[in-house]
Amino acid sequence: MPTLEETVTSTITWFEIPASDFPRAIRFYETIFARPLKHDASWPNLAIFPYQRPGVSGALAYGEGHLPSPAGVVIYLNCDGKFDDVLGRVEAAGGSIVEPKNHVPNVGWVAQILDSEGNRIGLHAAV
């Protein structure tokens, strides 16, 4: 059996994006990524972003202590292969683009949006 040190592939292992209107936030992310989030009764206050192990994932989080903010830490969500499509759906889904698509040498393409809840979120594509 591998040790924890052998299985960790990233500094980030989980993230939570706060939501004040949980159904609206779920619709927003399902719309821009054109994929469903996992949301069921076993975790009623979380809607989990799709992922494959050993990849990193996270969730929308609703409830006490989960307060949306445009001034907090910015996380970047993976948009490899679909960056322009995802960015193009942001405004129709109820968000806004606060930093347009830019190329960062040796990093890839990035942009920042405000989601439907007012969180500042980064989008990233390696190519």
3D structure, described in words:
The chain is globular. A four-stranded mixed beta sheet has the order 4-7-6-5, with no helix packed on it. Strand 5 and strand 6 (108-114) form a beta hairpin. It has a single domain, classed as Roll (2,3-Dihydroxybiphenyl 1,2-Dioxygenase, domain 1). The protein is built from three helices and seven strands. By secondary structure, the protein is an alpha/beta fold.
List the helices and strands and how they pair.
Layout: H1 4-7, E1 14-19, H2 22-33, E2 46-48, E3 57-62, E4 76-78, H3 83-89, E5 96-104, E6 108-114, E7 120-125
**CATH superfamily label:** 2,3-Dihydroxybiphenyl 1,2-Dioxygenase, domain 1
Q: SSE order in H/E notation? A: HEHEEEHEEE
Using the coordinates shown, work out and report the CATH topology.
2,3-Dihydroxybiphenyl 1,2-Dioxygenase, domain 1
Number of strands: 7
Beta-strand percent range: 25-35%
Structure summary:
The protein has 127 residues and is α/β, with parallel strands linked by helices.
Which characteristics define this entry?
127 residues; 31% strand; three-stranded mixed sheet; single chain; alpha/beta; 2,3-Dihydroxybiphenyl 1,2-Dioxygenase, domain 1; 18% helix
